[in-house]
Amino acid sequence: MAQLWGGRFTKETDRNVYLFNASIDFDKRLYLQDIEGSMAHSAMLAKQGIITAEEKEAIHKGLQSIKADVENGTLEITDKYEDIHSFVEANLIDRIGDAGKKLHTGRSRNDQVALDMKLYVRSEIKEVDALLKQFLEILVRIMEENVDTYMPGFTHLQKAQPVTLAHHFGAYFEMFRRDRGRMTDIYNRMNYCPLGSGALAGTTYPLDREFTASELGFTGPTLNSMDSVSDRDYVIEFLSALSTIMMHLSRFAEESIIWNSNEYGFVEIDDAYSTGSSIMPQKKNPDIAELVRGKTGRVYGHLMAMLTTMKGIPLAYNKDMQEDKEGTFDAIDTTKECLTMFMQMVDTMKFRKDVMERSAMKGFTNATDAADYLVKNGVPFRDAHGIIGRLVLVCIEKGKAIDEMSLKELQEISPVFKEDIFEAVSLETCVEKRLTIGAPGIAAMKQVIGECKKYLAE
Fold it and tell me: What are the residue numbers of the active site?
């Protein structure tokens, strides 16, 4: 059992205690960050004259050889080592001798693991952001192709007013755009280097923390050593942002499932992203969307677990904080996989424009426009609201849509109706006269799409 401590102890750690305490099974994915941090730390030690230039070169060559051997499979990370830090250090000493023993000068595993986790989360933020951008590019393409694809807009899952597919997907564009903003916010807030904080109280060695921070691409060093080793706010923020992404995906997945149903028939999910039934040969199931919806709870769970783990921990580092990794790793993996699968499903989805348009023509989505017509012809809005309510009731009794009624039938409800009512409540008019920014009219949508494309190009 390779450990970085033990001089104070008089007997071996119990094997089961060792395994319970060890983190190598999951923190081995931090090997790259551990090596990167160690190279920056050794460069700083040499700059400050704490180790020689020759020792630094030996350390760097040793670390680079460990990285290469892990990646080509000739060096296996096993539970012989307590954690990734002991794996790297033990192998370094085996390869370069006493110079390797000087690597840990001026640092603790506490600031080392804090650094590794920050470096890992920072890189994953970039990867999630790249996936979000890729998804937004798919959405804006679909928006641009469907500025005149009419469909019903809903409230309470009831048909409300006519919109376009571009407008509907534009709502999701805004959601995922905000998710990208959260990635940027978290990155900027967390981008301070904890290395050099020691166990909790810094060190007596003349470290240049600004140099180390710069070497690793941080804005600067953290300013309180106790907070540096015990801060996991950035993990919680990232898990919260991932949960929000999953919530947005889940809402989108729910609509895709509904739209794909026989009753709606708005879309057809590509065969490559559907599955069948083992007993019912006619079935084509939206399993990808359902799995995305289901995995949302899994990511939420990791956020709640992390909040619960951190809520009672006194300053500074405590072993509880080792629990920050497995859930975070799984939440990241899950969100990235869901984003990838779902955006590919949406990218290959077929939109049944004729079905959407027919659906928009039913369900009285033009009722508000009919009321507006009366208002524009001198009827107070509250009276107009009541008149159209009675009109809808008559239409239901006769099994007709508003624009299927004759002028005579309409005038029996209100003499204010004239021949131009039919143009006023047509699907095209209902959508196209909504020209304020953010509305579904073609001119407004084209302006928004232009801004979306500009945003993506920045």
Answer: 156, 277
